[in-house]
């Protein structure tokens, strides 16, 4: 992943649609929720950070609705091709700097890349691939093939032409046995004939990919699943020539990835201050036409300082602006506020197993895990009031989540009945499940009479992070559950996801967030072979539904909707996670900026390369 507007759509598709949103609370890293066009990873999800303010009230009592905001600036027209655009990226943590779509993990990196390396496949507002991008495709349902063709005139920033090999190389690198990244497990890869043999090291090439000429390749799939055109096809090219002679195992850490990355977007990287900023200049040979600016700079700015940077004019656009700050600065002069629904949701995850690296799948073992009792998880859901959190901490710009199929996918989302806020019911469930206060200290022991201490991991970031985590902890303590912060403190974004991904035994539950990708298919986050399945949950019924939801039969949209509705209801029954908040994002834009939009609708005049500044000299 990363959100997707057509300024940002050619940005963040521009999350596979994976990334990683830990974007729980805050907006600071979101995109963090990049994840992003369609692509944070192949599935479109991504990790994000969670910023989050003080327990108790909001800055003002007003409750907002994102639908009342414009999505596009009122200042539109022909950009001059000159001037510098200063973008602030609100985050309390540096971006990691793995600046290649095949290797990055977190949404902050996806947000950075989106400015200089766009997706080769375009996407419409219904999250379906179109043929407006640098690569076009044609499907043949009779023989399960897809032909990909590179347009003429598309160049990398070093002047080399984009070839079909660059698109094929993405699959060859991500599928390589030495690749240790998180991508390659979704249908866009695994349904290609010969892919598994290649990934397992039993073949030197992917038999289902045939290069016809420098601009054309034919991919043969075992079946044409509906996810393929909704983000399943990998959306990015790989500069094959730029990494020539390099082993796959060396690429992620190479200077070509971390210090001097190239892309095919309208701006090329001039310099990088590691973790802090990227300076870019106009790429004169950009294939769509002349970019609207001469220079673009993107700087990471602490959430506590981002509003001041906007107000002073030091920043023209503030990405991942902390939603909780909006009420205090809503009347800022010289700024137009845009908003849209975010492709993200916050959740509480329960550790229910571990990752079996050798088998490449989750090892679901609830009987061995502290949080393995579904009744304990159900009681914890009843104990928290997400409606109040949305209003108290976010003034309505985040609101109670129900289904794991979010309203971002408007045509797929249906409300699901979930455990309501009811501390009395939580207490009743815990009593009946055998969690009783045996020693009279006010905290419950487990059904065996042993002390029960639940370690809760939550990220640092923004003013809300600590009070929000404290709110959840106190809500659970109010029903007798002894919940404490892992390591006694909030955890920095990168360290947090390292611990979650590695199944650190000090984490029993955690607060994270996901940026969802273009495809509604949730298997990239909850499938048994998905590395992003951080709860390590699986069940026969869940796997069966996820498989059916992306089968050839699911080309029937009504059938697919029904399958995902069943899966959403199953998740409420089995509770590997508690979806807590859906969210909108707000973006302050200086009035001098031309053609910037957060709208998801395709509009040629509002693509990223058309953004300009009014007073350029």
TrEMBL record:
It comes from Jeotgalicoccus halotolerans. This is Peptide/nickel transport system substrate-binding protein. Residues 28-54 have a biased composition (Acidic residues). InterPro entries: Peptide/Ni-bd, SBP_5, SBP_5_CS, SBP_5_dom. One of its GO terms (molecular function) is peptide transmembrane transporter activity. SUPFAM superfamilies: Periplasmic binding protein-like II. GO terms for cellular component: ATP-binding cassette (ABC) transporter complex; periplasmic space. It is found in: Cell membrane. It is a lipid-anchor. Residues 134-527 form the Solute-binding protein family domain. Belongs to the bacterial solute-binding protein 5 family. Its main location: membrane. Keywords: Signal, Transport.
């Amino acid at each position: 992943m990363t959100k997707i507007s057509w300024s940002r759509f050619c940005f963040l598709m521009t999350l596979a649609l994976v990334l990683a949103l830990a974007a729980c609370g805050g907006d600071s890293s979101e995109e963090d929720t990049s994840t992003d066009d369609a692509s944070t990873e192949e599935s479109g999800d991504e990790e994000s950070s969670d910023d989050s303010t003080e327990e108790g009230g909001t800055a003002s009592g007003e409750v907002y609705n994102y639908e009342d905001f414009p999505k596009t600036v009122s200042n539109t027209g022909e950009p001059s091709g000159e001037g510098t655009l200063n973008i602030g990226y609100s985050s309390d943590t540096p971006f990691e700097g793995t600046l290649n779509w095949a290797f990055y993990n977190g949404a902050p990196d996806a947000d950075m890349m989106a400015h200089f390396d766009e997706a080769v496949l375009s996407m419409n507002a219904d999250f379906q691939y179109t043929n407006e991008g640098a690569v076009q495709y044609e499907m043949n349902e009779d023989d399960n093939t897809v032909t990909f063709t590179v347009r003429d005139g598309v160049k990398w920033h070093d002047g080399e032409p984009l070839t079909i090999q660059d698109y094929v190389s993405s699959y060859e690198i991500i599928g390589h046995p030495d690749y240790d990244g998180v991508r390659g497990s979704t249908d866009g890869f695994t349904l290609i004939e010969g892919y598994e043999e290649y990934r397992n090291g039993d073949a030197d090439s992917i038999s289902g990919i045939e290069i016809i000429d420098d601009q054309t390749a034919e991919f043969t799939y075992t079946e044409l699943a509906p996810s393929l055109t909704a983000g399943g096809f990998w959306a990015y090219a790989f500069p094959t020539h730029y990494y020539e002679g390099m082993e796959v195992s060396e690429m992620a850490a190479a200077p070509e990835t971390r210090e001097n990355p190239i892309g095919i977007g309208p701006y090329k990287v001039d310099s990088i201050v590691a973790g802090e900023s990227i300076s870019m200049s106009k790429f004169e040979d950009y294939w769509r036409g002349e970019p609207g600016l001469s220079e673009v700079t993107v700087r990471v700015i602490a959430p506590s300082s981002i509003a001041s940077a906007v107000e002073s004019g030091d920043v023209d656009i503030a990405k991942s602006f902390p939603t909780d700050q909006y009420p205090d600065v809503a009347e800022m002069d010289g700024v137009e506020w845009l908003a849209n629904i975010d492709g993200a949701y916050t959740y509480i995850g329960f550790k229910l197993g571990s990752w079996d690296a050798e088998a490449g799948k989750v090892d679901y073992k609830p009987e061995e895990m502290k949080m393995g009792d579904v009744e304990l998880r159900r009681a914890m859901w009843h104990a928290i009031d997400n409606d109040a959190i949305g209003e108290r901490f976010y003034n309505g710009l985040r609101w109670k989540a129900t289904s794991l199929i979010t309203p971002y996918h408007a045509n797929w989302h249906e409300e699901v009945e979930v455990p309501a806020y009811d501390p009395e019911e939580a207490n009743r469930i815990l009593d009946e499940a055998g969690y009783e206060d045996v020693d009279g200290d006010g905290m419950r022991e487990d059904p065996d009479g042993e002390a029960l201490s639940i370690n809760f991991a939550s990220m640092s970031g923004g003013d809300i992070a600590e009070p929000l985590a404290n709110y959840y902890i106190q809500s659970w303590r109010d029903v007798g559950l002894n919940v404490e912060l892992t390591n006694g403190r909030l955890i920095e974004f990168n360290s947090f996801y390292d611990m979650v991904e590695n199944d650190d035994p000090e984490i029993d539950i955690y607060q994270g967030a996901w940026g969802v990708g273009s495809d509604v298919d949730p298997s990239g986050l909850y499938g048994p072979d998905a590395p992003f399945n951080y709860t390590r949950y699986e069940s026969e019924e869940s796997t069966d539904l996820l498989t059916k939801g992306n089968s050839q039969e699911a080309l029937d949209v009504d059938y697919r909707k029904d399958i995902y509705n069943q899966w959403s209801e199953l998740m409420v029954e089995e509770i590997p996670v508690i979806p807590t908040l859906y969210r909108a994002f707000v973006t302050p834009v200086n009035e001098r900026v031309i053609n910037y939009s957060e709208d998801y609708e395709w509009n040629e005049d509002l693509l990223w390369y058309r953004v300009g500044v009014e007073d350029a000299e």
